[in-house]
């Protein structure tokens, strides 16, 4: 008898659950459709994405539908006094509660599977379709995308950059995972405002296109423009968008891997995002100092090379000067030899004249004049060569002094390089420490984001069970079999209590760095407490 009663309750619940689910699915689809149309998605594309949207909204519709069905089922039982009859028959209330709770557990597992495995794969499939559509648009308009820039919710593809001007630009505007607008332009500019809070995109000689999700090759044209400017607000926080497309099992494995990497780390940060920003600024400052040190080392190395070149030149000049000194000394020696030779010849002639007939005085004077003239000429040559030797030796002294100066410069440059390399080494060590800190903070931040995504998928699945726990006593207490009353109770609980708490919890966990578990599970815990209090009132009657 009890089994028959339990099967009857489950059938009654499902009989009410299906129309409630269709009702909530319709309302959620209508809301999402209006939102996407408002953002720019056209009706043909909307019709194509509705199946995906129905899959997205299903986990949201399940808890509300179960709550409505539970309140109506038990409300009808209470209104028809069937619960009183069951009690009179000696059947305890837990016998008519247990099968519905088990059903709630089953729906919680189904919701968990949808959030954990089905939706991420569906998101990824839609993303692949959009990327394929983007490639088709680029190929149709002969745009070879060599550069891609992401400014949420825009993706900008650029073929080339000439003199600071971007050529052949394609801009895709997204709403959720869907392309809602396409802009193509021959050229344009991208500038960040002075405040750094927005990007100004200026396009010239372009056209507006409307995407066709089914076949993005044939794209209807909306109109053209000569010049248009757009302001894109910059997101303050950068999230790992790939986590949206990762299944729950992979997220758990990834988080475990990150936890193992951080296990041996003694440095933990309360606010990893702030640490990343501050440390990144320090790294940029160190990079500037490193660049200055490298430029200083490069300058000193250039001075060393120039000094070595100068030393080589001066050594060559010394060799040439010494060679010239040798030549000049040979000239002098030759000249002195010529003087000795002339003197000897003069002496020999004088001896011969003593044995021969005495010549006239005029001949002697003439010969003496020629001799003195030759001697004078040779002595001038000797003096000239001595001056040249003196000049060459002075060049040698100057070159040696220059070599000493250049050698001193080399020593000073080497000393400067050594000191600068020491400073650079200290900067590199600090840079390595700061880089590891950023890496640890980034892993800690990523670990928190992964935990956030995990609990975002786990906590909604429990809502099916908690809403059933609330719906059973509420149905018994309200004693009504009206669908409108059941829907009203569901709307009040969902819109005014549950979803505001969920939204608040997500904001707290995401922005204010509150603990994740209390923030995201608080709404379910409150539902559970309300359900237990209501059950206590029922069992006490």
TrEMBL record:
Topology of this chain in the membrane: Multi-pass membrane protein
Membrane spanning residue stretches: 12-37, 49-75, 96-116, 458-477, 484-508, 520-539
Principal location: membrane
GO biological process: lipopolysaccharide transport
GO cellular component terms, semicolon-separated: ATP-binding cassette (ABC) transporter complex
Pfam families: LptF_LptG (PF03739)
Source organism superkingdom: Bacteria
Record's keyword terms, sorted: Cell membrane, Coiled coil, Membrane, Transmembrane, Transmembrane helix
Location in the cell: Cell membrane
Coiled-coil blocks: 248-430
Xref: InterPro entries: LptG/LptF_permease
The name this protein goes by in its record: Putative transporter protein
